[in-house]
Amino acid sequence: MFKTTAVARREGSGKTVFMVAASEMELFASEQCANAGDSAPLTSPETLLSAHPGYAGENWLVTGGAGFLGSNFILSARAERSARIFNLDKLAETGNMASLDSLHDDQDHVFIRGDIRNRILVERLLHEYMPSAVIHFAVESPSDHSFLSPDAFVQTNVLGTFSVLEEVRLYWESMEGEKRKRFRFLHVSSPEVYGPLGPEDPPRSETAPYQPAGVFAASKAACDHLVRAYHRTSGLPVLIANSTCCYGPFQFPYAPIPRIILNALEGKEIPLLGGEGACRDWIAVEDCCHALRTILDRGRPGETYHISNGTDVSDRDIIRMIGEILDSLRPDSSHRPHGSRTVAYGTQSAMYPRYSLDGERIRRELGWMPRETLLSGLNRTVRWYLENTWWIDAVRSGEYHDWSGRHHVERQTGAD
Question: What is the pLDDT along the chain (416 residues), one digit of tens a residue?
């Protein structure tokens, strides 16, 4: 048996979040206690999670929902009231709950802190909340120092994906009728599985051979093969999505677009990370999230869909466009003209190579089209970074790692 005791601390917002740790299991359930005083009774996780017995929408389990793409997907889905979200994330280096702070009063977003390799936890979430879809973002992402610990790519990306797939398969096989027919598993992959492209190479199609050039890319390729194998051997209704380079709100400062914005804003050198002549295809994260929901709604099980703007743009043109946007938004800045301090780092071209995908299939078969032009998307992104310096400062200082500690109420569990 487990004994559970509550430890309560309410912040000024009145938000209360519970943690239940049972063996390897950590379960967070969030509740907004609007205008509640310290004497207000705590709501148990069991009461909270059954607070909407008449909820008419779908339940989705999202893994890695505190990362850049995952958090944007959840924000977009909740804005459209697409589904009730159960968000499983272990809050590793790029997991940032501050990105989801706007959902603090949304009881249809439930955050669960845990590792996707914990099959006991994944099994419990599937059978208790009975999602109609699992959207799998959880990934150990590459960063400037990720080459120091490549084993994390295998542990999280390969073994973690296997753990999720096996529990999802068992869950799906236990379903019946229309629920089983409608269930989907959407795996979010990477363009890096196809390998880097040369300057004159055409964009990769969904049938292109895999040629991963690094451990991260190889781990994602392994995930894709596992996902397809589960479809072929057990009939699990899977979908795979590969997206070209995303940019937008809540992207960490070391990523290319935020780095250009912030360096230009602060008068620092702006690196051409791919070297002279580097080009790549960019897509606004809002468009990517819309494409993912389109694939989830209309995609054929077992198929792969590429998400792409379809236009390669040179790094120099990206820097010029961002500089011009900053010039118009910050006309009194001492660093005008923004974007003028460009420095070529050709030796890093292997670290930031060109990836480009052919996105014709999703347009032709599913009717998806990007809503943002590159200029409109960059404009929205630059404005977001100018208006959300609190988020940038928290990431740069590492303070975002403490976000959970300040905004969660712990429930400690022991055993008899």
Answer: 222 222 232 333 333 333 333 333 444 433 333 333 333 333 333 443 444 433 447 999 999 999 999 999 999 999 998 899 999 999 887 888 999 999 988 999 999 999 999 999 999 999 999 999 999 998 887 654 445 577 888 888 999 999 999 999 999 999 999 999 999 999 999 999 999 888 788 999 999 999 998 888 999 999 999 999 999 999 999 999 999 999 999 999 988 999 999 999 999 988 776 655 567 899 999 999 999 999 999 999 999 999 999 888 988 899 999 999 999 999 998 888 887 777 765 544 455 678 899 999 999 999 999 999 999 999 999 999 999 999 999 998 887 766 554 544 332 233 33
Distance CA 147, CA 242 (A): 23
Structure tokens at 75: 């924000």
- Separation CA 89–CA 224 (nearest Å): 20
Distance CA 264, CA 267 (A): 5
